[in-house]
Amino acid sequence: MTTVLDVQGVRHRYGGTVALDGVDLRVGAGECVALLGPNGAGKTTLVNLVVGLLARQAGTIAIVGGDPRAAASRRELGVVQQSLGFPTTLKVRELVVGAAVRAGRPRSAAGPVLAELGLAELAGRRAVKLSGGQRQRLQLAMALVGDPALLVLDEPTVGLDVAARRSFWGIVAARCARGVGVLVTTHLIEESAGVADRVVVVDKGRVLASGTPDELVAVLPDRTIVATSSLEDSVLAGVPGVLSMTREGRWVRLRTREPEAVLRVLLAADPGLGDLRVEQAGLEEAVVSIGAGV
Amino acid sequence: MSASGVVGRPVGRERGPVGLGRVFVVELVDDLRGIVREPTALFFSIVMPVGFFVLFVSMFGRQNSGMLATFGTFGVLAVTLMNPGMGVAKDRERGWLRAKQVSAVPVWVTLAAKVAASFPYAVGVLVAMAAAAAATGSLSATPWQMARLVVVLLLGAFPFALLGLAVGFRASTNAAAAILNALLMPSAIFSGLWMPLAFLPAFFSHVAPFLPPYHLAQLALAQLQPGDGVLGHALVLVAMTVVSAGLAGLSYRSARP
User: Quick check: B28 contacting A, CB < 8 Å?
Assistant: First the structure.
């Protein structure tokens, strides 16, 4: 796979405070990588280094093989910020045309992107009059009109409703499928599980874990058996393999690492067993257990 | 993902360099659209200095034909010092400057467009003042002299625009307005831009040569009436350009992303 972003051994400090303490990160063409971590984890510092707003102190960063601060690399880069205040006097089409020209593309590149992102009907409207979801789509249009190899999205869906989020991620996924590499920072863990091919968990300036959402969840062997039961609590808690037992209304919740063995015992011993399901920990629990209190 | 060593752009996507001239035109047109679509700023930038000009020229204009030059200097400085600096402060606050900084275009293109976009205001001020002077019967400048006055003031305003940018990179929009006004007003008065120095206490004439606006006003005056040598005044402005370019550069570099 072609690498569009390669971060190796990056350290960064502000005065005496260490923000990044040796971070490695790679984004391939057509890959969507979510950077997950609590506030102060170092996400913003890393993003500012990648987009060239901060000068590198130690380590290497390459966008399509080039330095992030070189003009040639920046042309491979599209950025969506968390909240961008557009100039009050400019219209949607003018902003996208401006972005096209700044990326060295013809003015005519704006039309197809406006259409693709469902902004064609809003093209004559001033950007400041748009809804939150439309504004983020406009930012995405401005990023995509440059035909970037790498898209950096910094908390792009904060404050958007479900429909706006879904539409935003739909567009990102479509570009990803066409070979654009995506790096997205987010707090929204379950959302990132839906879009990301790979999740990188950072905290205190270090990468704590990296893998597909399924791989991260798999680090948690715990399962929870939920059911209604006619057995006494003490009996349930005594079944071999049950780590702990709680009761929630009609249901009991049994935590275990050997769900099959426990279920065999329960099915044999409990004629009143019903409403049965086995739960796996979600990505949120996995991330918390990895150590990043997102 | 396998850690294959392939680094590079997917094939078939190479392109030529970004045309900085095209970008400058887009940025300038965007800034000018701002003037046309929100004309209140234009109105106040012109009405305020022109109003004062009319007041002062009706009091002193008959004895002093150079007031178009000195008050014109004030009018031009009021827009070229304030507009680019406040524009950049506003863009910084709303994150819009950041959007430009992460683009492939050097940020100076944006800044140059902002300075150029203040020129229509400056020309508007001068034209309105000339019209007011004509209406009050105190206009003695020929069209050729007026043209030279406009060119000299626009060129001479450059170091002041840089100073405005230096403030705009660090201060909030409101603070930038306050700081730039605090620089402009006293230095305008002490440089004799409002009241001719001849009508002010001698103390003012001693202070004025230490203030850059005084030297710009002298260059402007030299376009309307025979004066002493212009070289010294021009050198002061060149020196100020170097200093304020340095300040703007430092200020830009220390601005937080």
Answer: no
Q: Do A75 and B91 touch (CB under 8 A)?
A: no
Contact A180, B13 (CB under 8 A): no
Q: What is the pLDDT of residues B196-251, one digit of tens each?
A: 888 888 888 888 889 999 999 999 988 888 777 789 999 999 999 999 999 988 88
Percent of chain B beyond pLDDT 70? Answer: 90
For the segment B91-122, what is each residue's pLDDT rounded down to a tens digit? 899 889 888 888 888 888 888 888 888 888 88
Domains and CATH numbers, chain A: 3-218 (3.40.50.300), 223-281 (3.30.70)
Of A65, A99, A198, the CB nearest to B7: A65
Span B134-142, average pLDDT: 81
Interface test with B, best of A5, A24, A89, A151 (most B CBs within 10 A): A89
Shortest Cα distance, chain B CAs vs residue A86, angstroms: 6
Across the interface, of B8, B18, B34, the residue whose CB is closest to A2 is: B8
Are the beta carbons of B80 and B152 closer than 8 angstroms? no
A&B contacts, CB < 8 Å: 116
Interface of A with B in 112-151 (CB under 8 A): 142, 146-147, 149
| pLDDT for B5 | 46
- Quick one: closest CA in A to B87, which residue? A87
